[in-house]
Design brief:
Blueprint (H helix, E strand, L loop, with lengths): L1 H19 E8 L4 H18 L4 E9 L3 H13 L9 H14 E5 L3 H18 L3 E8 L6 H11 L7 E7 L6 H12 L7 E4 L6 H4 L1 H7 L1 H4 L8 E9 L8 H26 L9 H13 L9 E6 L2 H8 L13 E6 L11 E6 L6 E8 L23 E8 L6 E5 L12 E3 L7 E2 L2 E2 L3 E6 L5 H10 L9 H17 L6 E3 L11 E4 L2 E4 L23 E5 L2 E6 L1 H23 L2 E5 L5 H11 L8 E5 L1 E3 L9 H8 L11 E2 L4 E2 L2 E2 L6 H12 L7 E5 L23 E5 L6 E5 L1 H4 L4 E6 L5 H9 L18 E7 H5 L1
Parallel strand pairs: 1-2, 1-4, 2-3, 4-5, 5-6, 7-10, 8-18, 22-33, 23-24, 23-29, 24-26, 29-32, 32-33
Antiparallel strand pairs: 7-11, 8-9, 9-10, 11-12, 12-13, 13-17, 14-17, 15-16, 19-20, 21-22, 25-31, 27-28, 30-31
The structure holds 6-O-phosphono-beta-D-glucopyranose (BG6).
Length: 789
């Protein structure tokens, strides 16, 4: 009976092999660190999981090492492989023996080597009568080697018809958007998108891989909670105790943002923030939803980041890269970033991403902290853990290490009892005395994996099963770089805060946020002002008041100037609303007003926005959603933070009948009519202008044929700079305003400031010189750089 059963099983197995076919796995860089530490073990685990399920396998460890040396190295690695703890030792030894026999080393370098490999695979298939299912090439090699290997695989080592090819790539995938795109284009010339599996090993960490299944299996409980009304903040954290010693040549080029935040933490962020697809086992749906999450990320500003560098870092770079003693690196080894997701689900919820080397502990987690909106009437002593709504409520995906020492999913008992797959997750046994995130572990429903698995084993299994959603697609990769590159560029010369490393960091790296800004809690300890007799600091200056072109001039350092102007605008607004019930403000575009708008948006809580009408001084002839559009600037830096009734917002109609600024569409006339209908006497309460280096103001440029005089209140004009076509308020309309403020900032404006100070009324030459409100007031706001040079 037993013999019959074995024969049947064997036959079934043979048939299945016949059905499923043979898979060749080629590990490139098979003698390298990653391969030795994780990849061989992952391949062995794949073999253990899949053997007997219908596939046959061969494993080719490839490298540039000579055949003899390579064979010895591989034999050593294969000997050290281990089976899961619960496997019977005899069975383990048998399977390990099989795996060792199926694995061989080969020297792989030239195109001919790849051709020979392909021939050998085909010969084996023929000899054993197997059908080929597919080939996996795992690139565990530095990226500079990618192109040559990819070319050889594509030209000489593709599997036959009907069999699949999968190539697995390891980061870094570029250094910024442009380099990532170049690399992607190059790889795309050899491989189809579905053939490429870009690894982010964090997607293989068990707690991270559990985020979507957890959200799916607990939909009912989470549906009402997973949004801005209930989530106070999300923390995505990866702390390390190790530093970058030994790899500073890599680290100098990348730094912590490129090394960890752009990839690992961003991937996690999208898993938390994305809309949950109806069917999470559809890779396509998951990837699409992930991409949508990227599109909802609000662009980062310099102020969205705090940077640090452990003190020994520059010394290590000097030593490892033979740099002179005078060399100091600016590469951050610590970063905290504040991210906002601009959609209805997450608007206003801070997502804090943080990672660093040489910190006090090694730990990784994603913590979703819920708002506490309850008041508990009874004394704290009587609160019951799973019922009291006053105790903290949080969900934590614990990636590993730290106090707990293993991956886990934790849910506060006063939230809900979660459902997790009981085959792979078990409840954590009580650990008296252990506190996590401010609460004893007994306050949580806590689960950990039944069998802890290394991330690479998880991912190798996903590659084998074609689970593309655990990998980074080209679109996803580029979307991430689109998000991070502007911030990286803006931080390129930022000096990171130095920290001693380890427990000594104390509170030095703690940071806090207000609005969209992040800053360290503690002031820098170094003395910035060297003492008496030294050069004056910005704060030593007072706001200066004088006259410029016969009108009041206010001059200060930029921050104070912006504060003063914002205060003045608020005061004007309050006065206007008190007198007339409304305030009409016309704003210019460009970069100078950006800090002003942000200051108004985030620091002026008494501003009467509900009674304010916002008008545009000028506009570029581009669609309103174009980043070049002045209205888009207004939207990005002001409108999205404040509450103005939408009928009080008046963009210029540059885009009518699906075309831009066509004379026949009469957009300028339409705007003029709107002004005359809503603004008493067409007299704005306040017009904010700038001054260009050529003396232009609004979109009125030197020698402009329209707008410098005449009767047309709003005109179409041309700018010497792109985009050339513009719409602008005319000087006569501007001069009807009750008040005009001209904001001039930066050293580049110094020369024009001097020229205009001496000019008479010459609007054709210097349009700004034509600004002179007929019965209103003109005030100049110049920073010291523009005014004093
Ligand atoms: C790698 C980074 O991607 O991730 C390393 O390059 C970092 O700098 C490592 O140390 C952390 O991974 P893990 O699995 O140890 O958390």
């Amino acid at each position: 009976m037993f013999t019959v059963a074995v024969c049947m099983a064997f036959l079934a197995c043979l048939q299945a092999q016949e059905l499923q076919g043979h898979v060749s796995i080629i590990l490139l860089g098979a003698t390298g660190d990653l391969a030795k530490k994780y990849l061989w073990q992952g391949l062995f685990q794949l073999y253990l999981d899949e053997v007997g399920k219908g596939y046959s396998f061969s494993f080719h460890g490839a490298a540039l090492t000579s055949t003899k040396q390579g064979q010895e190295l591989i034999a050593k690695v294969l000997e050290s492989l281990s089976c899961p703890e619960d496997m019977e030792p005899g069975h383990c030894a048998e399977l390990k023996g099989q795996f060792q026999r199926l694995s061989q080393y080969r020297h792989l370098k030239t195109n001919e080597d790849y051709m020979a490999l392909s021939k050998d695979i085909e010969a084996q298939l023929q000899h054993e009568g197997l059908r080929e299912a597919g080939r996996i090439f795992y690139f565990s090699v530095p990226p500079f080697a990618y192109a040559d290997i990819a070319r050889s695989i594509n030209s000489s080592c593709r599997p036959g018809p009907g069999a699949w090819l999968r190539v697995v790539l390891e980061k870094p995938f570029g250094h910024d958007y442009v380099s990532a795109q170049q690399l992607a284009t190059e790889l795309g010339s050899f491989f189809q998108e579905e053939e490429m599996y870009r690894v982010d090993h964090y997607l293989g960490k068990q707690a991270v891989a559990q985020i979507l299944p957890f959200r799916d299996q607990n939909r009912k409980a989470l549906d009402g909670l997973w949004n801005r009304h209930h989530v106070e903040r999300v923390e995505i954290i990866m702390k390390e105790t190790v530093d970058a010693e030994g790899r500073t040549s890599f680290y100098e080029e990348y730094g912590v943002i490129r090394d960890v935040l752009q990839n690992h933490l961003t991937e996690v962020l999208t898993l938390v923030a994305m809309e949950l697809p109806y069917n999470i086992s559809s890779s396509k749906a998951v990837l699409q939803h992930k991409l949508q999450a990227f599109q909802a990320l609000r662009g980062l500003q310099k102020g969205s980041a705090v940077l640090g560098q452990y003190q020994a870092y520059s010394r290590q770079v000097r030593r490892e890269q033979q740099k002179p003693d005078s060399f100091y690196s600016l590469t951050p080894t610590f970063a905290g970033i504040l991210v906002h997701v601009d959609n209805l689900r997450w608007e206003g919820v801070p997502f804090i991403l943080m990672s660093g080397k040489a910190l006090d502990e090694r730990v990784g987690y994603i913590r979703i902290l819920f708002r506490n909106q309850a008041y508990c009437a009874q004394n704290e002593k009587r609160w019951v853990v799973d019922q009291s709504q006053c105790l903290p409520r949080q969900i934590i995906f614990y990636i590993g290490h730290g106090e707990l020492g293993s991956p886990a999913v934790l849910v506060s008992r006063n939230l809900f009892r979660p459902s997790l797959p009981s085959k792979s997750w078990k409840e954590v046994e009580g650990r008296p005395g252990l506190h996590l995130f401010g609460r004893p572990i007994s306050d949580y429903y806590a689960y950990s994996p039944v069998r802890e698995q290394d991330a690479y084993s998880v991912l190798i299994s996903h590659i084998f099963h074609g689970r593309k959603d655990s990998f980074i697609t080209t679109e996803n990769l580029l979307a991430s770089w689109v998000f991070w590159t502007p911030l990286l560029d803006s931080l390129a010369h930022e000096v990171p805060r130095l920290y001693p490393g380890g427990a000594e960091n104390g509170f030095l790296l703690d940071f806090e946020f207000s609005g969209a800004q992040l800053r360290f809690c503690q002031q820098q300890l170094e003395q910035l002002v060297p003492g008496p007799g030294s050069a004056p600091m910005p704060s030593n200056f007072q706001v200066l008041t004088a006259k410029y072109r016969e009108s009041p001039l206010i001059s200060a350092w930029p921050e104070e100037l912006i504060s003063k102007l914002a205060d003045d605008i608020e005061a004007t607004a309050v006065r206007a609303v008190r007198r007339f019930g409304e305030f009409h403000l016309a704003l210019s575009g460009g970069s100078s007003p950006v800090p002003l708008l942000e200051q108004l948006a985030t620091g002026h809580f008494g501003f009467p926005w509900a009674q304010t009408h916002l008008w545009l001084v000028d506009e570029r002839c581009v669609p309103l959603w174009d980043p070049e559009s002045n209205f888009q600037g207004l939207q990005a830096h002001l409108l999205r933070y404040i509450r103005v009734p939408y009928y009080n917002i008046h963009p210029m109609p540059v885009h009518l009948h699906q075309r831009l600024c066509a004379e026949e569409d009469q957009g300028a006339q339409m705007y003029a009519s709107e002004i005359s209908a809503l603004v008493t006497n067409s007299s704005f309460d306040l017009v904010l202008l700038g001054m260009g280096t050529d003396g232009h103001t609004a979109s009125l440029f030197p020698q402009s044929p329209a707008g410098l005089d005449g009767t047309q209140p709003v005109v179409l004009t041309r700018s010497p700079y792109k985009p050339h076509q513009r719409m602008s308020l005319s000087l006569p309309l501007i001069n009807r305003a009750r008040k005009v403020a001209v904001l001039v900032m930066g050293r580049v404006k110094r020369e024009i400031t001097m020229l205009v100070s001496r000019a008479g009324h010459e609007p054709k030459k210097w349009p700004i010189s034509g600004v002179l409100p007929s019965s209103g007031q003109l005030v100049w706001y110049m920073d010291y750089e523009a005014f004093l040079g």
